[in-house]
Amino acid sequence: MARAVTPRRKAINSAVAWTLAILIFFPIFWTVLTSFKTEAQAIADPPLFFNFDWTLENYVTVQERSNYFRHFWNSVVISVGSTLLGVIIAVPAAWAMAFVPGKQTKNVLMWMLSTKMLPPVGVLVPIYLIFRNVGLLDTRTGLVIVLTLINLPIIVWMLYTYFREIPGEILEAARMDGATLRSEILYVLTPMAVPGIASTVLLNIILAWNEAFWTLNLTAANAAPLTAFIASYSSPEGLFYAKLSAASTMAIAPILIMGWFSQKQLVRGLTFGAVK
Amino acid sequence: MATQHSRAAARFMIAPSVLLLLGWMLIPLGMTIYFSLLRYNLLMPGNNPFVGFENYSYFLSDPTFLTAMLNTLLLVGGVLLITTVGGILLALLIDQPIWGQGIVRILVIAPFFVMPTVSALVWKNMFMNPVNGLFAWVADLMGLQPYDFLASAPLLSIIGMVSWTWLPFATLILLTALQSLDSEQLEAAEMDGAGPVSRFFHIMLPHLARAITVVILIQTIFHLSIFAEILVTTNGGPGVASTNLTYLVYAESLLRFDVGTGSAGGVVAIILANIVAIFLMRMIGKNLDA
């Protein structure tokens, strides 16, 4: 919607937009900046912006004191594991619904979505007790299972909206040319489906990485991903702003970068295709 | 192209997803309802007698429940108000021709990717802390007394934190919707002498109506379950000043180990969420036909 405006108007709009954007981004900037200060500099009055001795000490301390990378690795395993498992289960379902739609397809899709509306706290107690009884509390396996199930509806939906955009005529053309079902899937459909699957994977890793209800309630020291590890800073000892910042920076950096790359998919995925 | 054969194959392909979700929904849900009818406390082992609706009457008549309901509504309402109004304004602004639009967009969307525990602890300590926080320093510069946000206005502070995370979400969705608006329509209106205000109310707002509804409904689903932000900042306090329904159920079940009452609270939360869900499902269902 690029319409012509006067240069003056453009300058004012730009100034306001940039000011707001910088204000909104500031807490992230400040966290990253603080992570390079010493604890004393982190609480200095007046606050220090760039005029301090940059140090990587906090990153080292966080790792040494609390084995940071164990929790980082837990986050990786849980988010990637649950996403891949979910995609493996969801691809056939989304595929079938997109290419062989039946009378019930819409109802099945809507019903799947409705499971996502179930508030987690409504099933917290049974899941907690089941996990306690079968020894899944505080295990990565347990969290992979739960996160796979809570994100499965989103994965099916996203894949479905992508697959539905693959034109059926291409399949017919391939068939006319004598393609077998196997080569049809392998050489015609798969290449067209890959971008959609990749976007789905990306968005769901982000969602699983930041999930903070089940990860907080079902883990303790052992399987705690970063969401739960960072929560341990809510009752700290002594000065800790710089260390909190270092731990936070490492926790949000990978996902922030992935997020910037997946803005469009985010809209589609989180609105279940209602806004594109 | 849908033959008998391919239909059967399709059913076979859909089955795993459906069965898993069915199990995920029905088993815990059935257990929650069952537990909610028992006197069941993990600290008191022994048999768990059936008590009918006793847990419900206990949970619903507890004054904390009313506070938690009110807090839940304020939390959801407050965040929705800030993010929706703010999101519309920001989206309209970013949609204008501005320098560095791509970078502005990236900066604005960033908070949405920050995990809730990080966002809550950064706000709590580095900004809202009455001694070392940046807000205290700013207040000091302006000659004001520092304000202990989380002790004096816990709910409002949490509304602020959550809004910071979700304003980007609303902005991104509304911006996407705005960019699909036909610019010829706007230009035609402009030619006919419609001012910016009437263009907004008569063309843009109707065009955005659907996206706004989606933003509101999806956020409501998420905000009914706000938990991490409360857990790491106030633990529901001071007292129960920032306890919402989700936190109350958590406290009953996993802090006081009262499985029966916690489950009754869980059922109440499910009913509440379902009321919202029905509206959301209708919206999305309509889109499937389109």
Report on the structure:
The complex is a heterodimer of chains A (276) and B (290). With 276 residues, chain A is mostly helical. In chain A, 72% of the residues lie in helices and 0% in strands. Chain A is built from 13 helices and no strands. Chain A has helices at residues 7-34, 39-42, 57-66, 68-99, 105-116, 124-134, 140-163, 168-176, 181-210, 214-218, 226-231, 241-261, 263-270. In chain A, helix 4 (68-99) packs across helix 9 (181-210). With 290 residues, chain B is mainly alpha-helical. The chains are: A mainly alpha (276), B mainly alpha (290). The interface between A and B is large, with 103 and 111 residues.
CATH A-level architecture of chain B: Orthogonal Bundle
Report helical residue fraction of chain B.
Answer: over 70%
Structural class of chain B: mainly alpha
At the fourth level of CATH, the homologous superfamily of chain B is MetI-like
Helix content of chain A: over 70%
**Major sheet of chain B:** none
- Report the span from N to C terminus of chain A: 16 Å
Give the CATH level 1 class of the domain at 68-225 and 250-270 in chain A: Mainly Alpha
GO biological process, one term (chain A): transmembrane transport
Main location (chain A): membrane
Domain ABC transmembrane type-1 (chain A): 72-262
Protein name (chain A): Sorbitol ABC transporter membrane protein /mannitol ABC transporter membrane protein
Write the layout of secondary structure elements.
The complex is a heterodimer of chains A (276) and B (290).
Chain A: H1 7-34, H2 39-42, H3 57-66, H4 68-99, H5 105-116, H6 124-134, H7 140-163, H8 168-176, H9 181-210, H10 214-218, H11 226-231, H12 241-261, H13 263-270
Chain B: H1 4-35, H2 54-61, H3 63-95, H4 101-109, H5 116-127, H6 134-141, H7 149-152, H8 154-179, H9 183-191, H10 196-223, H11 228-233, H12 245-255, H13 259-289
Subcellular location (chain B): Cell membrane
Main location (chain B): membrane
Keywords (chain B): Cell membrane, Membrane, Transmembrane, Transmembrane helix, Transport
